[in-house]
Automatic annotation (TrEMBL):
UniProt keyword annotation of Aminoacyl-tRNA synthetase present: no
NAD in keyword set: yes
Gene transcribed to yield this protein: N_220
UniProt xrefs under Pfam families: TIR
Name this protein carries in UniProt: TMV resistance protein N
Species assigned in the record: Vitis vinifera (Grape)
Subcellular location(s) of the protein: Cytoplasm; Nucleus
Matches recorded under Gene3D superfamilies: Toll/interleukin-1 receptor homology (TIR) domain
Length: 164
């Protein structure tokens, strides 16, 4: 059975061995794909009995620590890179946590490049480069980690969806 958008944190999980509550954590920019591609993907995963978490809440500037815990408690993540993904500090903070979990916990990461070129994500060019023009002045301490996470994620085997 799939989880709803809300979650109940596990009190028995620890940073080194989190309890796996979700099979998949979906990372996406809501305005780009939340009610289209990602919504269809979520329904397809849930329909196959895959416990999937997606956060549909309105976001502020900082990512909620409870959401970072949900990432740790997931076996894998699907990252839906879209045109405005890198404009969201929230999405980029999620991405950093996802990539940390890949290294530290064996978290499986599957990127989907939704109407964006993987090389734009990898090299932070195109809309991804434009997003960093503003970020580098506001988030000077975070941008190096964001850039590294984007490059690492874009180097993974994934799916490039150009149309449809």
């Amino acid at each position: 059975m799939a989880s709803a958008s809300s979650f109940t944190p596990s009190s028995s999980s620890t940073p080194s061995t989190p309890q796996r509550i979700h099979d998949v954590f979906l990372s996406f920019k809501g305005n780009d794909t939340g009610f289209t591609f990602t919504d269809h993907l979520y329904k397809a995963l849930v329909g196959r009995g895959i416990r999937t978490f997606r956060d549909d809440k309105i976001r502020g500037e900082g990512v909620d620590p409870e959401l970072l815990k949900v990432i740790e408690e997931s076996r894998s993540s699907i990252i839906v890179f879209s045109k405005n993904y890198a404009r969201s500090p929230w999405c980029l903070d999620e991405l950093v946590k996802i990539m940390e979990c890949q290294k530290d916990l064996g978290h499986v990461v599957f990127p989907i490049f939704y109407h964006v070129d993987p090389s734009h994500v990898r090299k932070q060019t195109g809309s991804f480069g434009e997003a960093f023009v503003g970020h580098e002045y506001i988030w000077t301490d975070k941008t190096p980690r964001w850039r590294t996470a984007l490059t690492e994620a874009a180097n993974l085997s994934g799916r490039h969806l150009r149309d449809g």
